[in-house]
Each structure stands twice: as C-alpha cells, then as structure tokens.
Write a structure and sequence with these properties.
This protein is an all-beta fold. It has 1 helix and 55 strands. Strands 1-30-29-28-27 form a 5-stranded antiparallel β-sheet, with no helix packed on it. The relative contact order is 0.10.
C-alpha cells in the first residue's frame, strides 16, 4: 500500500494567546560580561485575522517597490502581508491572497523578472487543511504570477514547507515538498515543472529544503527532511520515522538516511564539521511517541552519514541555525528544544555536537520556531535570538546571559525572527505572531546605536538564513568559489572589502558584512561589477545587461535589465548619498538612475578601445570613463589629469578609482600595473610579478593613501595603508586545476 499522510496539525489547528510574560533563567554563573542591547519599538501592525493569525510562517524580506525593503509574512486566513520596514506602510497592491487557504509556509523572494524587484513564493495549505493549496508566486505588486497544484495519486495536496529559490539544474527554480507524496521543482519565472520532477517522497514533508553545492562541482543539491510511515509504496517498504535526503537538480536521489522519528526540522548546511568540512544539521519531530531519535539534533556529512547526534531533552522540530556565536571563527550549531512547558537553548560544537560552556539556557516560553543569530551591537560576535510563546528572548552569544526580551506579554511566536539592516542604517528586528485575542501581530524594533554595524560574520539572521531560504551559511569556514571574481568594493572605514564573482557570489572580508548575493540564482547575464553604499551596510551588483541587484541598505532605483542595449554594461558607480547610481556600457554609454545626473557620454563616439570602467567625483557632479588603452574621458565637474591613451602598455587597463578629493585617479592594468595621475600617489603594484590570473578591479582606502587590487582568482594585493583581510585564491586555483 502507499504510505500516506499521518501527521495531524503539528501544534494544534488553533492557537492560544501568549503565555504569561517571562524571561530566561541562567543555568550557572558566567564570568564574561555581556554587552547591552537597547531596543525601541518602531512600528506595530495588528492584523484583521482573529482566529487564524500568523503561526508558523516566519517573516521574510523582499524589495517590492522604491520604498525600501518590506517584511512579508503569511497567516492562516490565506493572506500574504507586506509592510515597509521603514514605517510599517503597505506597498501598493498588498496584501496578496491565496483564496482562503492557510499559509504556514515562510515566503521566499528573488528578483527573476527583469524588473529589479522581487517575486514572492509561498506554499498554501497545512496539516489541518492538507488537500487544498499548492505552490504560488506573486509579483512585486501582489498579483499572482503563477500557481501549481501539488497533486499525487491521492489527489491535490497542500504545501506547508517553504519554497527555496536557487539554481536548480541550470535554471532559477523553486522547490518544496508537499503534504502528499510528491515534491515539485518549478521554473521560478513561469512555474513550469522542471524535467525529472516531481520526486516521489512516499509521505508528507514539512521541512524546507536547503540548496547547496555539497560536492564543489558547481551543481546545486537539494537537502531536505521528510516523514515516513510503515507500508509499501511503489514497491519500496518504508518504516515509521523520517528521512534526511539529498536530491540532484534533476529530481534524482543521491543519498538518504532513515531515522525512527519524523524529520520536520528544516536542515541547515555549512562548514561546521571538523576541519571546516560541509555538514548538515537537522532535528526531528514528535509524531511517533517513544522513538529513540526523538528530541535529537543530528550532524551529518554531505553524503548522509551521521557524524554525531545529541539528545536535547525536548522536541527539536525547530530548524537549527549555524554560525559563529563567540566570534572566535568556529562554527556552531544552535538549536532550541521544546519541553512542553518551556524551552532550552543549546549551542553545540559543530565538530562533535557537544554543548559549549554556559549552554543550555532555559526559557519560560516554549521554543517552536527556529533561532536566529546576528551581531546586534558591533561586538564582534553573534547574539542568539530565541522565539518563544512568551516573546523573543535575546541571549548574549559569549556570556549566554539574557540581554533583552521583545514582545513579552503581547505576542506569542511559533516561527523565527528576522534581523535586517534598515533603510536608516540601523539594525532592525521583526517578529510576527499572535496576540491575546488570537489575532496576528507584527512588531518591528531597532537597536539603539547600531547604525553602521553589519549583521556579523557567519550570522543566521532569519529563517533559513536568507530571503531565498537556501539554508546555507553565507560565509562558510571553508570558502568556495564557483566563478571568477569580477569586481570589488571597500567598506566605509577601509577595514574590509567584498569580492563579487560573475555569478553574483559575495565574499566578505574584514568588517565587511554579508547582505545577500545572487550566487545561487540563474542569471540572464553575468555580474560585471559592484558598488557599496556610503555607510557600507549594503551594495549593488550589476549584470552585463544592466540588471541591478540591491542588498542591505542599497535601494533599487532602476535598471536596464530587459532593455535592448547597443553594448554590454561593464561597470557602475554610486552617488555620494547612495540614492542613485550610474551604469556604463563598453561604448561609453551612460545610464543614470535615482539622483545620479547625466553629464555626458561617449555612446555616440568612435572609440579606439572599449570603455572598461568608471569612477564618480566626490560630490557626484561628474565622472570619468576609462578605456582599455587607458584613455580617459572626463564629464561634468571631473578634471582631466592625464592618461595612457596612445601609449604602449604591457597589458590592457581594466579598472580605475578616484582619489577622495577628486583631484586625481589611478588606473590598473590586468597585470596589476598602476598608473597614478593628479593627486593620486603611487603605493606599489604587481606589474613585475607573474600572476596566476589577471587583476580585474581595484578599490581605494578612505584617505587615499593606499589601495587594493583583486585578481580573477580572488587573490588580494594591498598597498600603502590598505590592510590585508583575507582572500580566496587557493580555493579557486585548486578547483580549476581539477584537484579535490
């Protein structure tokens, strides 16, 4: 017989109001002094959904219009809500609706339609409504773009797991299991089911998949949990319990591991095993009372072999976070346990699953949703944000002391919190749950004094780590570079930098924060450059078709993506206030967006060599273009200070940078040769060195007395006062030489 859906409503079809307010209690004295976390409530929304409020749908973030990022979350009335993080106002066209089918799925978001704005993906249906719903996509204006029914031999099925977005078998796809026996993967643009799908799961799935290149071959694997019921399906005998599975992009099973309890916890993937090896962390469920694998979190390798397992003494249905809690470079697994009357918070050694000193800690409220981590104060380590049925409890990552409780007495949480860089540069925390009258409540807080801080290295700031819900640690201990580096940008204080690869993968070093990437998406055209916001809390990526991808506090102001161009875009520059940017094409054509002014171009001129880059003047009233022969074209208030146009060069010029005062500029050639003009000082070069791969870009320290160059293999070269904060060359070189 076929295995069938056996789970009831996992936490009950109806929600209660928050439990009595209460904080967490310390397990033992701590010598480490915790830092202070001071919050203010910026806005709150009480939703008209009494009786069917926000439950297991976690808040996610999407850019839906020019008003900055918005929080997006679903409730059990089937309403998909969106509110601007800045002020709680709703973007035009929102909320969206699923026709009354409840949403316990967390929305995912990605820019896929050429508009530069996000499409939002969500599943509809839950265990109490398992035969209605399916997969849906909504555009930035809240209109449904496509819907796909999750059918199997028993008919239509709902979708409670969230839809992960990424490069699936060469296209930007979305995937999630259903509450039936089939898992689908679809084209993110039009909903077309991808070749090889659906995959027959034989039972329901509540866990959101992770999308990761587990084996370093440039292919995305799908890592997921699922349920198993005793019986025979398609000639295969199943036992009660659950599965960890790794699937290929074509819907093929690569490996699996069976446990005797359901796997309803969404897996997290990252380099937490010994030596930075890739691991998969996941918890279990509670459908089979007394099963020995209950209350357990597992650490598996990339081939579904269990490396360690730790019993936490409570239900581990919530999804684990992975990252560096203490700020020492190690990668831990962070998991909450639901004891039925309260909860415990565990931070485990990623290599062996042993609890770190000072953990676990207790909470008065139950822990049902996944924990998030982020550096809330710029302390250099990540705090632990624990959602409970009595509000959000925040623990200091190093001392394990409680430093704040948000929403106590007003909101109950069965999902994950979300930490963001808000449009004003402050760190924001959004929680969404239910109030005493069983109605949905969304609260948005900001951290006092957090302007200019990043979210922290190896942070896990929201459910499944990022808006695409890929479930992969953004900055793994062991880096991996699939595509060549094409550009770089420096942080505002000059103590860090980002490298960007042609697939939009971001590699952050020093105090540079990771704010998102397109590394897991299928792009219409490759990324060719990037620019950072003035405060360094965000960045833009630009593709060769002029498509713009904005992350962190970078605003979307327009693009040429989807428009016919005479020549490809080769670079960009941002205005001084970050409210606009210029794109430049290889013929010198200029495209100005936001408050960027048009000051002229070479788009209608005959050039001896193509334009390869640009730089803006400090006040934004002009810009320079540079050609591959070092020819300089000055527009607006930019001055001409010299060039190498007409001079013989050993290698072509590939990029330029302006001095902070705008009285000069540097040109850099592909061999790392530096040409300094005006008030630009010469601080060194690699022009006389044999490089493995060519230099592709440069950036300048804030004072102008140093600069960095980056090569296509991620090799970083620092000169003058520029500090070296890390690089990626060894990984890329090994991959491209065919080594493991």
């Amino acid at each position: 017989m076929s295995a069938c859906l056996t789970l009831g409503a996992v936490f009950g079809p109806a929600l209660i109001g928050p439990e009595p307010a209460g904080g967490a209690t310390a397990a033992r004295p701590r010598a480490v002094q915790p830092h202070t976390v001071t919050t203010s409530l910026v806005w709150t929304q009480t939703l008209p959904d009494a009786g069917s409020p926000v439950a297991e749908s976690s808040p996610s973030v999407a850019t839906l219009d020019g008003g900055g990022p918005s929080v997006v979350v679903g409730d059990r009335t089937g309403t998909l809500w969106a509110f601007h993080l800045a002020d709680g106002s709703a973007p035009a066209g929102w909320p969206a609706h699923t026709g009354g089918v409840p949403i316990d799925s967390t929305p995912s978001a990605a820019s896929v339609d050429g508009s530069g704005l996000d499409t939002v993906y969500v599943g509809a249906g839950n265990a109490a409504n398992s035969h209605v719903g399916g997969f849906s996509a909504f555009n930035h204006a809240g209109a449904q773009v496509w819907g796909v029914n999750a059918t199997d031999p028993q008919g239509p099925q709902g979708v409670q797991a969230s839809m992960s977005v990424g490069n699936i078998d060469g296209v930007t796809g979305v995937t999630a299991p259903s509450l039936g026996q089939n898992q689908y993967a679809m084209n993110a643009v039009n909903g077309a089911v991808l070749p090889g799908w659906p995959f027959f799961t034989a039972d329901s799935g509540f866990a959101t998949p992770s999308l990761a290149d587990l084996y370093g071959n440039g292919q995305t694997e799908i890592v997921e949990g699922g349920d198993s019921s005793a019986g025979v399906a398609n000639g295969v005998t199943y036992a009660n319990g659950g599965h960890l599975r790794v699937l290929g992009g074509g819907g093929n099973l690569i490996c699996d591991h069976h446990v005797n309890q359901t796997v309803d916890s969404s897996p997290a993937v990252g380099g937490f095993l010994a030596g930075g090896a890739t691991g998969i962390a996941f918890g279990t469920g509670s459908n089979f009372p007394g099963a020995s694998d209950s209350n357990t979190v597992f650490g598996s390798d990339a081939h579904c072999n269990i490396v360690w397992q730790t019993n936490l003494g409570g239900n581990t249905v919530d999804s684990p976070a992975i990252g560096d809690v203490r700020g020492d470079g190690a990668v831990e697994v962070v998991e909450g346990a639901d004891t039925g009357s309260g909860g415990t918070v565990w931070v485990l050694n990623g290599a062996n699953g042993a609890p770190l000193a000072g953990w676990p800690q207790s909470t008065a409220g139950r822990i049902i949703g996944g924990i998030a981590t982020a550096d809330l104060t710029g302390g250099g380590y990540n705090d632990v944000l624990v959602p409970t049925t009595s509000g959000l409890v925040i623990f200091d990552g190093r001392s394990a002391a409680v430093v704040a409780t948000l929403g106590a007495g007003t909101i109950g949480l069965q999902n994950s919190p979300m930490v963001t860089i808000d449009p004003n540069g402050s760190i924001g925390i959004t929680i969404a749950g239910y109030g005493a009258n069983n109605q949905g409540i969304i609260q948005h807080y900001e951290i006092a004094g957090s302007t200019g801080h990043s979210l922290g290295k190896r942070a896990w700031p929201m459910f499944h780590q990022n808006p695409q819900l890929t479930g992969v640690l953004a900055q793994p201990a062991a880096g991996h570079l699939n595509q060549p580096i094409v550009g770089m940008a420096a942080t505002a204080d000059g103590k860090g930098y980002w490298n960007v690869a042609s697939d939009g993968g971001i590699f952050a070093f020093g105090d540079a924060g990771f704010h998102g990437s397109t590394g897991g998406l299928h792009l219409n055209r490759p990324i060719v450059g990037m620019a950072a916001t003035p405060d360094g809390q965000g960045y833009w990526l630009v593709a060769s078709d002029g498509g713009i991808f904005a992350f962190g506090d970078a605003g979307f102001h327009g693009s040429t993506g989807g428009s016919p161009l005479n020549r490809p875009v080769v670079g960009m520059a941002a205005t001084p206030d970050g409210q606009g940017y210029w794109l430049v094409a290889s013929d010198g054509g200029i495209f100005a967006f936001g408050d960027a002014g048009f000051h002229g171009s070479t788009g209608g001129s005959h050039l001896n060599r193509p334009v390869v880059g640009m730089a803006a003047t400090p006040g934004g009233g002009g810009y320079w273009l540079v050609a591959s022969d070092g020819g300089i074209f000055a527009f607006g208030d930019s001055g001409f200070h010299g060039s190498t146009g007409g001079s013989p060069l050993n290698r072509p010029v590939v990029a330029m940078a302006a001095t902070p005062r705008g009285g000069g500029y540097w040109l850099v050639a592909s061999d790392g040769g530096i040409f300094a003009f005006g008030d630009a000082g010469f601080h060194g070069s690699t022009g006389n060195l044999g490089l493995v791969l060519p230099v592709v870009d440069m950036a300048v320290v804030p004072g102008g007395d140093g600069y960095w160059m980056v090569a296509a293999d991620g090799g970083m070269f620092a000169f003058g006062s520029a500090g070296f904060y890390g690089s990626m060359p060894a990984v890329f070189a090994a991959q491209n030489s065919g080594q493991d």
